[in-house]
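How a chain folds remains the central question behind the approach discussed here. No coordinates are needed to read the tokens, only the vocabulary itself. For completeness, the protein is quoted in full, as a sequence line and a line of structure tokens:
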Amino acid sequence: MKALFDLDCELVGWLAPNQHIFDTDMNWVAYVANGHAWSSETADWLGAVVGLCCQDIDGRAVAWNPELGPVSSVRSARPSRSAKPARPARPARPARPSRPARPSTPAGGWSTLTFVAWLSQ
């Protein structure tokens, strides 16, 4: 599990790379398929997942991991709807990571959405 931070370096969730996204209470909030995030509640497209960075539908960074830093890009084409996987078992809560240093603003900027708003779009 990889920690996800917002633009203020606050822990907002956890990413099981190429599989699932959990909030800080380890609730399943999204899944990852073909490089894109999808809401676990509505199965709506949330945006691309580039490495360990979750982007909004405009390609701007919403949540990131210090291993690769925040990445923004151009708006990606809306992908075909992905099949919703079965609900994963709730994972054990990882140890709280230390707060990373504030990264440089990614080219293209940060998303205007908070992590919670991103999940709710």
About this structure: The two ends are 24 Å apart (CA to CA). The mean pLDDT is 95.
